[in-house]
Amino acid sequence: MGSELAILGGEPAFAEALHVGRPNIPDEGLVLERIRQAIDRRWLTSFGPLVKEFEEELARQAGVKHCIATCNATIALQVLIRAGGLRGEVVMPSFTFIATAHTLRWEGVTPVFCDIDEETGNIDVAHARKVITERTTGIMGVHLWGNPAPTEELAALADEHGLRLFYDSAHAIGGTRLGRPVGGFGDAEVYSFHATKFVNAFEGGAIVTDDDALAERVRLTHNYGRGEGNHVSCVGTNAKMTEVAAAMGLTSLENMAYLIDVNRERFDRYAAGLADVPGIRLRRPSPGNTVNHQYVVIEVDTPGTGLSRDDLVATLQAENVLARTHFHPSCHRTEPYVHEQAVSAPLPLPHSEALSDRVVQLPTGTGVTLDQVDQVCALIGRAVRHAPAVTKACLA
Ligand code: T4K
């Protein structure tokens, strides 16, 4: 690494981009063998043996009776919202990926945004309580960056008001709360297996639930409303997972323990490398939680660093470190919801806004070496030490 930061005129530290979200390829040989077997069987989609095996393993791992695999998590959320009978308004945290809100809107439900606890990044249950109205039919919790939400408090709130409780668990497979695995909380949870996710199926999702009746409606809804003998009993869509996706997903799932170790090693290395950088804080799982460490997230405290979050990101990107700022802006500051404040966000959401202005995601996973983690930490340290010059360069 040269001595001058690229943003100040030096050479970029990395010749090739270091991505956030580089897929983990579990065991390439086994993935290809499974795909070859699927081709040999001439059974490529529609409840094939690999999808069934993947579903069984996901349900076992979550400690629930049912799993329905889907083509992605966005469709899985839509299917669950419809099959679960959500109508009117649903309370959800604003600080999440836009898909959580859009899937409700797509199903004709109004997402009512509530604030988060900045420490955990998850829904502020006291605020959620305040935005419940007579039109509310459910709560959509999110385990942000894999850190499980306050599931006990949310269950109590949902019970008190007779609401459905679902979780968008797109980030969270492999995590636990108070010793219980993610996947078994609320009435149902939804995983994402997008290429960038901890368990990767190219694209994919799944709904896990212990509720027999809900599972049955989800199964119908994700297959055109058709059940036994192709009898159609409700409106449905095509949300099925393919065998190719399941080949990757299953192999990825089998490697989960190894992938958690890889991620944790990188997380610990970031923790050591950033410990003495003023104004930079590495986010950690909440007490009682374990996570898959797929997301390495730092917070930039500008009074401490002398550098804005966006200028730090620009500095890293100039070095070919493609740091990201998910989830900025929060959903309630995004179209179309930003123009519907009276309905979807009746109160200000200062904590969502503050956190979304401070966070940066850094590269991790099998695509990033420990040496590269050290280099990224060194670049962040150097950017902070040269904050006035970096700020000036970013203004130019
Ligand atoms: N709920 C939550 C809380 C979510 O975060 C998401 C999705 C969902 C629901 C919906 O899940 P899905 O319907 O996707 O299953 C990405 C992902 O598409 C999305 O899955 C994810 N969350 C969201 C946070 O980010 P993009 O468009 O910003 O990322 P993308 O695909 O451009 O990739 C990001 C980086 O990863 C790139 O810089 C390059 C790298 N990459 C990506 C892919 C796909 C690779 O190196 N190889 C690859 O194959 O949305």
Q: What number is the mean pLDDT?
A: 96
Q: How are the strands of the largest sheet arranged?
A: 2-10-9-6-5-3-4
Might you state the CATH topology name of the largest domain? Answer: Aspartate Aminotransferase, domain 2
Quaternary organization: single chain
Provide the low-confidence segments as ranges: none
Explain what the structure shows.
This protein is of the alpha/beta class and 396 residues long. Helix 2 (49-62) packs parallel to helix 8. The protein folds into two domains: 2-11 and 256-323 and 363-395, Alpha-Beta Complex (Aspartate Aminotransferase, domain 1), CATH 3.90.1150; 28-254, Type I PLP-dependent aspartate aminotransferase-like (Major domain) (Aspartate Aminotransferase, domain 2, 3-Layer(aba) Sandwich), CATH 3.40.640. The model has no long low-confidence stretch (mean pLDDT 96). It is built from 15 helices and 15 strands. The chain is globular. 51% of the residues are buried. Strand 3, helix 4 (98-106) and strand 4 form a beta-alpha-beta unit. The protein binds ligand T4K. Ligand T4K is lined by residues 19-23, 72-74, 96-97, 99-100, 142, 168, 170-171, 192, 194-196, 205, 322, 326. Ligand T4K binds at residues 19-23, 72-74, 96-97, 99-100, 142, 168, 170-171, 192, 194-196, 205, 322, 326.
Outline of the structure:
This protein has 15 helices and 15 strands.
Topology:
Elements lengths: L17 E2 L8 H14 L7 H14 L3 E5 L2 H11 L5 E5 L4 H9 L3 E5 L10 H7 L4 E7 L8 H11 L2 E5 L7 E2 L2 E2 L6 E5 L12 E5 L2 H10 L21 H12 L1 H19 L5 E3 L6 E2 L5 E5 L1 H4 L3 H10 L2 E2 L18 H4 L5 H7 L2 E4 L7 H16 L1 H9 L1
Parallel strand pairs: 1-14, 3-4, 3-5, 5-6, 6-9
Antiparallel strand pairs: 2-10, 7-8, 7-12, 9-10, 11-13, 13-15
Helix pairs in contact: 1-8, 2-8, 3-4, 3-7, 9-14
The structure holds ligand T4K.
